[in-house]
Amino acid sequence: MKITVNTKQRSYPILMEHGILKRAAEVCGDIGQPFLISDDGVPGQWRDILQAQFPDATMHVIPQGEASKSFPVFQEVLEDMLAHHVSRNDTVIALGGGVVGDLSGFAAACYMRGIRYINIPTTSLSQIDSSIGGKTAIDLAGVKNSIGAFWQPAMVLIDTDTLSTLPERHLSNGLAEAVKAGVILDRELFELFERDDWKDHLDEIIERSLLVKKRVVEEDERETGLRRLLNYGHTFGHAYESCYDLQTYLHGECVAMGMMTMAEDAELRDRLEKVLRKLNLPLSCSADPAEVVSRIRNDKKADHAEVTVIVADRIGHSHQEKWTMAQIERKAGL
User: How far is CA 156 from CA 62, 81, 160, in A?
Assistant: First the structure.
């Protein structure tokens, strides 16, 4: 399957195929000297498959986890790129989940004022959501993605075979973003989760989620309008992540809780709860309301006294609203 994303910055293909990782060098073509970035949580078999195709390439392996989206690790990557004489004609290849993709993309965006990068996501979260759209970032002072750039990849290769080594919790983590895509813009995608066993439709779920994101990114590359809908569940979700130091809960788990926090329509809330339970995703947490509000004040969607939030009217339809901090406080339980 091939999906072409057309943005003002560049157009690029998303290629989804079982086993495509084994053909990465062939598919990527002439990319200069590749610089490979992965993390130590990516099973060695996937790193070995990529390395074997680029035997002379450096593979920089970072520690697994959100803590790697930091200035010290970012600096280490850039220094290693410089030490290996990566030029403006070369290419960063990211192999891993969202942390690897975000960090690698940001490094590529900054190095020599911007070089190509290719994203090869290996988790459900990165395949469904973070690998496309050009958002690259690191965290600062516990605030997620507060330092970054819009830098579109040159190509995205999705090999769903890599999901075979993913623990079920991490599979569900990524599927929270697919549920979100269904809630905000694709009723049929959401109904698929209600009707069937998601394990029988994983490729379709990934494809439909990608098509939702393609539509949104093409219309609003830099998140000034429609793309903000993709933040449904994220205002509170990111706050929950930060309250637990980005460790206790996974990103998709926090998005799930954030969606439940924002689900006001009774029917939508009931249907959403049932789907999230099927995926073994949490519905709420015991984060301190005052700390949640404090974290939201630092959210990049906040504008001093107001925060842009996404409200779902019904399954498949959503809109933006400007909320005061007083409204945020009430929703948080203060």
Answer: 20, 21, 13
Positions of E strands within the chain: 2-6, 11-16, 34-39, 58-62, 91-96, 116-121, 135-140, 143-150, 155-158, 302-303, 306-314, 317-324
- Model pTM? 0.92
- Asked if residues 285 and 257 have their Cβ atoms less than 8 Å apart, the reply is yes
Q: Quote the percentage of the chain above a pLDDT of 70.
A: 99
Provide the token pair at 68.
């790697």
The SS3 assignment for 18 reads coil
Instruction: Give, in order, the Cα–Cα distances in Å from 167 to each of 43, 50, 214, 275.
Output: 12, 21, 27, 19
164: left (phi over 0), alpha (psi -120 to 50) or beta: alpha
- Range 268-273 contact pairs with CB under 8 angstroms and sequence separation of 24 or more: 268/183, 268/312, 268/314, 268/315, 271/190, 271/194, 271/315, 272/179, 272/183
Q: What is the pLDDT of residues 212-229, one digit of tens each?
A: 999 999 999 998 889 999
Q: Which residues touch 303 (CB under 8 Å, ≥6 apart)?
A: none
Domains, the chain: 2-165 (3.40.50.1970), 168-332 (1.20.1090.10)
Tens digits of residue pLDDT in 139-176: 998 888 899 999 999 999 999 999 999 999 999 999 99
**Strand partners for 303:** 306
Instruction: Please provide the distance, in angstroms rounded to a whole number, between the alpha carbons at the two ends of the chain.
Output: 48
Q: What is the mean pLDDT of residues 24-33?
A: 96
Residue 301: pLDDT over 80: no
Question: Of all helices (H) and strands (E), which one includes residue 115?
Answer: none
Cα torsion for 168, 60, 89, 217, to the nearest 10°? 30
If you search the block for the tokens 């293909």, which residue do you land on? 13
pLDDT of 300 reads 65
